[in-house]
Task: structure prediction
Amino acid sequence: MLEVRDLSKSFRGLKAVNGLGFRVEKGTIGALIGPNGAGKTTVFNLITGALKADSGQVLLDGREITGLRPDQACHAGIGRTFQVARPLAELSVEDNVIVGALRATGSVAEARQKARAVLDLLDFGREAEKPAHELTLPDRKRLEVAKALATGPRILLLDEVMAGLRPTETDRMVATFRRLNQETGLTILLIEHVMRAVMALSQSVTVINHGTLIASGKPETVVRDPAVLECYLGQEEDEAAHA
Amino acid sequence: MFDLPTFIYVDSAIRGLLQGAVYGMMAIGLSIVFGVMKVVNFAHGEMLILGGYLAFMLYSWFALDPIIAIALIGPLMFAFGAVLQRTLVDKFIDRPQHQQFLLMIGMALVLVNGLDMIFGPDARGAHEVPYAFDSYEVGGIFIDAVRLYKAAAALVMVAFLFWFFKATRTGKAIRAAADNYRGALVVGLNVSRLYAITFGIGAACAGAAGCLLVLDDITPHAGPGFTLLAFTIVIIGGLGSMPGALLGGVLIGVSEAMAGVIFQPSLKSIFSYGLLILVLLFRPAGLMGKRA
Amino acid sequence: MNPSPRHDGGLAGLPRRALVALVVFAAALIAAPGFVDDYILSVLILGLYFALVGQAWNVMTGFCGQLSLGHALYIGLGAYTAGALFVRFEISPWIGLPVAMVVAGLAGALIGFLSFRFGIRGVYFALLTIAFAEFTRILFDHWGWVGGSSGLYLPVTERTQVDLWSLRGPLWMFYYVILAAVGLAFLVCRRLLNAKIGYYWLAIREDQEAAQAMGIDILRYKVLAVVVSAMMTAFGGVFYAFYYNQFYPETIFNIDKSIEILLGVIVGGIGTLFGPILGAFALAGIGEVLIWFQDLVGVRGLKLLTYGVVLMIIILAKPDGLWPWLRPLLGLGRRDRA
Result:
């Protein structure tokens, strides 16, 4: 469904993403992991169009979406959340989601129905009237997901959506995504640090460091791969050396 | 159109150059404030006029030369700016930018109309300074003493500002705070105080320029025009860049003078605005500025 | 700024009290010429004029979040287009009006497209709007066909006969024209706010990048906001031309005018539907009192000085304006209703 080929991006001479390639199969949940600064969010930004790639391709269902603007990418089927939640602060939760739902329809009434459905799906209905800026952090994260989901994406890109959540909240999110994936066949790609979620949810894992591919495959395999351990431990060693 | 004798153009260019030095100094104040604090002082031109009227009062009562008066009015306006920043502007650092814009617009309205109430709308000027009719001759061109002294005073102040920001601790601290707000806080700089000083400097620049301009004429309602002029210069030269502001000032000064002579005096600003539009669209960082 | 659009669309959704208040208010305005004198009527006209142009400015700045400080441009374009057509070709203002709106709309589209295409935002955009207005001011100052710096003069006939087609007539005729315009503008804005375009504008205002990630073509919607705003403002400009019958580039394109437009909106409540109307009336009323006082005491500039102070106080203490604060106090609706 989503295929990244030989993707590269440099910032002022520093290669943030270096010839990266991976796939996420339709209807599966994939994870993109790696140490801090590995380039994960940059990859997301390249896929969603927030950044322009220097070279390489991004394909969605065989169709090339490299270089599309974020709104065009959204119409092509990419739904994304932001690492730091970006709610439409002065609007109510429901109105936030309505904006997302309006991607596929011109009718506000239809969008409202879709929005309510999405909110129910995420067990968020009770907060519908609340202004978004009054939400707690976990609820903001849920709103991020709701907004993206309402646009009717083919693939949902979640950027560290579990960060800062308590274990019970994390479990709840995991359950929701698993349900979404199983019931609607929604393809999901997550960037995550919270290993608990990665192991529980993903069917395939891609590990990157310094913008390059380190390993890719089933979660159990990847987690034991020495190269993977190296890049995480290597980072710990660096940190210990400088402490 | 181009059939005037050469010396008229040279004369205009020189006049523009000299005026440009004053413009540049005025614009530096605005540029610094935006560069450091990201605050858009929409009342800059009004502060200029305020300084001008203060100088006018001193001139009327004590026959004090406006250029000398800068020594008094500069610090006074500095204090005014610093206090204004501490009491009002500071509250808007975290607020949406347009609100701070509007606050200063309100301030501008207050200043313009306050001055109108006190002094009336007619033009005032310090026209009877001893050197009002002197001029110097350089290679066939006559340069008014007034223009020359104004430019000289402006350049002295510009030099002082350059020195202040390059060589003094406070100046360097302000530049640090401009480049990296959080970093500055982390190393223990009193950013609040630095902001007050910066705004004070901005006000002082404006006020000093006003003192120089009162040698020609000022009216309360010229305030907004000067604010726009200052912005034009600063955008063209590059927000946050001092050399840029000076360069921009000279550029505008010369282009206005030349346009006034080649076309019509009333059309002189159209080039400035045209240039402003082009710069905003194609190179908003200006000729020398960093990204704001 | 101010929150959500209405969930319910029609007037049926308003709480009973608000509906009654609205009806009473509208009725009072409609009946006004019957029982107030010409002076009060002229003040009401002024208030309505600022309500109209304020509402128009609000569309771009309040709904879509794009600060315009050069809105006088559209007033001037509106006034000059319809005014010149009338003076030069005796074309009725009712025909001149759509032409004026198109001219203003095109100007807005140009400014919007150029600016947003190059990613100009915030302060820079606001400055650009000023630059365009000033540029146009100087241009018109030198354009002989429309009178240059001497301005345009519309032939004034007696104010006793009603000639609606040429907009010549007594005060009450102008009153009803502007009242209808304000009513229309209010309904149009309400409709827009409750439709997809309104939601998209608010989204852009709140967070442009987030909006884009949700599939919103921000260039398109921002330009639309400018165009709609410009066209509505031009309506005010046409009215200005035929009501005051004379104007000059120096005043009509002036930044003072641009600031006048926004004062009422800020005071009343930026981003709301009723705020601009409330603010316009409040300032018109206060303005008249101040002018009377000014004349009495022989002091100039008091009105504008006070406006400046009011603006500063509002921005400091109630940046969302008076309406969002008054609304729940008057029991006219929840905090998040327009």
User: Anything to note?
Assistant: The domain at 2-87+154-242 of chain A is CATH 3.40.50.300 (Rossmann fold). Chain A has one domain: 2-87+154-242.
